[in-house]
Structure formats: structure tokens, C-alpha cells
Specification:
Elements (H helix, E strand, L loop, with lengths): L1 H15 L7 E10 L3 H8 L5 H4 L4 E5 L7 E4 L3 E9 L2 E8 L8 E9 L2 E11 L6 H27 L2
Antiparallel strand pairs: 1-7, 2-3, 3-4, 4-5, 5-6, 6-7
Helix pairs in contact: 2-4
Length: about 160
């Protein structure tokens, strides 16, 4: 019985140990396009439409584009859709370069009369990145990458 108490005490000690502090970063970028939301979203909002505007390969490994669908990007990055509305979706990266940072993103289209505002929001825990230089570099990389993605979406939406 004493052995069980010792094990239980050790487990409680481990469970009570403080976890490293989270340091979540939010990058929110927007871009307005000259099309109504019901025209804009179908051109860029499919879960694998990312292939068209981020220039990556995309395939579903599970599901068909609804909540719970898993996509594989460039045969290496795994992301699961965790939420969806008629004009948005949110995903979590479970395997890939940003998985250790608990990286997740939301792509949304907001109606503005005859125009649409595209909103891309990224959230990740920069505490998982070792140095301030790496944190700054990753932030700049993500801003540039997804700023470019919004510009590509605008071109796709406004074409024709």
C-alpha cells in the first residue's frame, strides 16, 4: 500500500509542476476585394483551394471538405479542419514545420455590400521557438507568406 501512495504522490508532484508559459502570437491580415461574398468565397474558400493561392499541393486524406477533414500539403504538412461557417474555416496543424507551436489559422470572407473583406488570422505559440531572433524571423515569414496569399486570392476573385 505504501508503494501505491508513493507512486500517487510522485504523479501528483509531476502533475502540479508548472508548465512553461504560453506566448501566443496573433497575426491578422485583411484585404478587400471587388466582388460580393457569394462570388468571392467559392473561388478561394474550398479547403484544398489553398493549392491555387498558396501554390502548394493539397489532398484530402480524410473527409470531403467539412469539419474533421484532414488535408496534406506538399506531401508533408497535415492540417485538420476544426471549425467551419458558410464563409470561413479554421484548421490546426498536427504535423509539419509549425505543429510544435500549436499553429492554427482561420480564413474568412466578410460581406461588405458588393465587396468582400478577406481575413486571414494565424495563431501560434512562439514560446516553442528557441530564440528571439527565430521568433522575429518566423513572424516576418508568416506575415509575408499569408500577405502574398491574400494578394493571390484577390487576383483569383477579381479575374474575369
Amino acid at each position: 500500500m505504501r508503494g501505491l501512495h508513493a507512486i500517487a504522490g510522485a504523479l501528483l508532484t509531476v502533475a502540479a509542476a508548472p508548465l512553461p508559459a504560453d506566448d501566443f502570437v496573433v497575426i491578422r491580415q485583411t484585404l478587400d476585394v471587388d466582388r460580393p461574398v457569394d462570388v468571392a468565397w467559392p473561388r478561394v474558400g474550398g479547403y484544398c483551394a489553398i493549392a491555387d493561392w498558396l501554390k502548394v499541393t493539397c489532398e484530402y486524406t480524410r473527409g470531403s471538405g467539412d469539419v474533421g477533414t484532414v488535408r496534406r500539403l506538399n506531401a508533408a504538412i497535415i492540417e485538420v479542419m476544426v471549425a467551419q461557417t458558410p464563409y470561413s474555416y479554421t484548421y490546426l496543424q498536427t504535423d509539419g514545420t509549425m505543429a510544435a507551436t500549436r499553429y492554427h489559422g482561420t480564413l474568412a470572407a466578410e460581406a461588405m455590400g458588393s465587396r468582400t473583406r478577406l481575413v486571414y488570422t494565424l495563431v501560434y505559440d512562439q514560446a516553442a521557438l528557441a530564440t528571439d531572433a527565430l521568433r522575429a524571423s518566423e513572424h516576418a515569414r508568416l506575415e509575408a507568406r499569408f500577405g502574398g496569399a491574400l494578394a493571390a486570392m484577390k487576383s483569383l476573385i477579381e479575374a474575369r
